[in-house]
Specification:
Helix content: 40-55%
Number of domains: 1
Distance between the termini: 25 Å
CATH superfamily: Zn peptidases
CATH topology: Aminopeptidase
Structural class: alpha/beta
Strand order of the largest sheet: 2-1-3-6-4-5
Radius of gyration: 18 Å
Strand content: 5-15%
Number of helices: 9
CATH class: Alpha Beta
């Protein structure tokens, strides 16, 4: 099976390209048991910066503001004529970015497509709240939950607060980039991690709604914490490693489910 990871789609969310470059190096050279299991049993495909024009602009503006007392222009667009909505082009395919990702998906035919984002503390793992899109095979919806519960459980076991699922995103709209996978018998999923956008360490204080203990977030984030790019990378990379290991351990099930979903689509 193939696990395909996308970083840097939303340019101000700067942690994921740094994380994927580091993870690629670890997968190539490290000999720990988890890395060896991943390397020997699955194929990992990484897109380290999905929106390279936007990445360059964010870096340029950060450096300009750093040299001019935090005064500088704002980004109207990251890429050409689009900003956050480069992740809403799954129907129209109007952007070269979207078409490039689609073409690479059709070439590799990955079992999982995993899109990395940053917005909420500390790590949200996508399953969605429902109602779920009725055109998606029920097997895919079950796979969303299987992988996410593995990640939440394993990271919680390692003492990492603020790893949760369910309460963000519905699982209905098919215009997100990752739905390239969901509508083609693969598994499309995403993360939201806690990023500062810029590579500075800051004290972050959360509202009560972010730290409340609820059934889908039994180990909530802390009220206050010093948060850095390194924290963001650690959470994101730890989650992806758990997901890669889970696929490696259950590789035959992933391939079997892909085959059954494809057969279901032909017979429907």
């Amino acid at each position: 099976p193939i696990y395909y990871v996308i970083a840097g789609l939303h340019s101000p969310e700067t942690g994921s390209p740094e994380m994927l470059m580091e993870l690629a190096f670890r997968l190539a050279v490290e000999d720990s048991p988890i890395i060896k299991t991943i390397r020997e049993n699955i194929i990992s495909v990484f897109v380290t910066v999905a929106e390279p024009d936007g990445r360059d602009r964010v870096v340029d503006i950060y450096n300009y503001r750093k040299d001019h007392r935090d005064v500088g222009p704002s980004l109207t667009y990251w890429g050409h004529y689009v900003a956050h909505d480069n992740n809403r082009d799954g129907f129209g395919l109007t952007l070269a970015l979207t078409r490039n990702i689609l073409n690479s998906f059709l070439y590799w035919k990955p079992t999982v497509m995993h899109d990395l984002h940053e917005s909420v503390p500390y790590l949200y793992v996508s399953t969605g709240t429902g109602p779920y899109n009725e055109y998606i095979d029920p097997i895919t919806i079950n796979e969303w939950h299987n992988i996410s519960h593995e990640e939440v459980t394993e990271l919680t076991k390692r003492g990492m607060p603020g790893v949760w699922t369910h309460g963000f995103y519905s699982g209905w709209a098919a215009n997100y980039l990752l739905w390239i996978a969901n509508t083609r018998n693969s598994i499309g999923r995403f993360y939201e991690t806690f990023g500062n956008s810029i590579p500075d360490t800051k004290e972050r204080e959360l509202s009560e709604s972010r730290i409340s203990r609820v059934w889908y977030r039994p180990y909530p984030p802390l009220k206050k914490t010093m948060w850095s790019l390194r924290n963001n990378i650690n959470y994101m990379q730890s989650g992806v490693l758990i997901a890669l290991k889970y696929m490696a351990d259950n590789r035959f099930d992933f391939v079997d489910n892909f085959y059954i979903k494809t057969k279901n689509a032909i017979q429907a």
